Amino acid sequence: MEQSGEKLTYAEAIDRAGDAIHRFPLVEVRGVPLMEHIANNWDAIWAFRPHPSDLLISTYPKAGTTWTQEIVDLLLNNGDADVSKRAPIAVRIPFLEIFSPPPIPSGLDLLKDMEPPRVIKTHLPFQLVPEGFWENKCKVIYVARNAKDNLVSYYHFDRMNLTQPEPGPWEGYIHKFMKGDLGWGSWYEHVKGYWREREKRNILYLFYEDMKENPRREILRIMEYLGLALSDDVIEHIVQLTSFKVMKDNPMANYSFIPMPVFDQSISPFMRKGEVGDWANHFTPEQAKVFDEDYARQMKDADIPFRASI
């Protein structure tokens, strides 16, 4: 990253941005609320043309994105932990739509400096993914997490991510989630959009709960989808390296490289628990009842096999 000829690390660029960092409001793009700086640069994002060899990792926020990124990076590098520590994960696998105040590089800036094949991250719902991904038949890995755990994780993330809108109290946040009044919009429409298109678009649709239940099995599924053939020893090594505990202690994956004033990890760590069923520690019985009734209404047209416990 350069600013006036000066090389900056990712963390230094964020520090240099200083007072320009704040909680950005949401602005609708084609009916989907996105952070203001994303909406302001939408034309450039929509115009992005991937190479056919590029791989897209897509999730609703806080559904296992970083975990999947780290698995993919290790698979592509034969399980070499040193190679996967070559740079922070946000630099190794750019976030397609993210735009921040200068001198923080945008996702598009990082991608310009990388040669295909590239691995790219997005939280965009299916209908907002730049058309070039589908026209060029790029491979896409989508990870979905059950709604209640996803909601809990997003709530704590919005508390500590000081560029996202103020989450407000827990009770109110539940209703924001149900209405889709959060960054990247409705969880319900997000998971359904990719589910409907998964076969037509050759999307590998994964579930967070399956990954927790049997990480080796899901890592093998990803390996096969990518057309790789790695030894059992390498796969076992990747299972170990991508365990929650190891990743939580890995400075290239745990987002400790993002300093204040962006991530205040004293409020909540970026990698908080990584559990299935933690929602039961947050929802009151009445909140769960209201949520479940609304869930049944919003998901009545979908047969997606989510599990809220394993």
TrEMBL record:
EC number: 2.8.2.-
Keywords from the UniProt entry: Catecholamine metabolism, Cytoplasm, Transferase
Gene Ontology cellular component terms for the protein in this record: cytoplasm
Ranges annotated as spanning the membrane: none
Sequence similarity: Belongs to the sulfotransferase 1 family.
InterPro entries on file: P-loop_NTPase, Sulfotransferase_dom
The keyword Transferase is annotated on this UniProt entry: yes
Keyword Transferase in annotation: yes
Primary enzyme class: transferase
Protein's UniProt name: Sulfotransferase
Organism of origin: Coilia grayii
GO molecular function: transferase activity
